[in-house]
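Re: beginner question about structure tokens

> Can someone show what the tokenized structure looks like for a real chain? I only ever see the sequence side.

Sure, here's an example I had lying around. Input first:
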Amino acid sequence: MATERAATPRSLSRADKKALVRQLHQDGYFDSRDAAQTIADLLGVSRASTTIESSPP
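And the corresponding structure tokens:
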């Protein structure tokens, strides 16, 4: 998603970060150990935010 927009993950808008986290969750990236923290660090958000954003609406 960031590459599609020629941006870094941290520079994505809140809505884009939300969509990216949901997509990563659907693709199984959160299945590995410490994935939520690693993804949160890359996006510049808290680990809790990645858990909340990956929850169904």
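Each token stands for a local structural state, so reading them left to right follows the chain. The mean pLDDT is 84.
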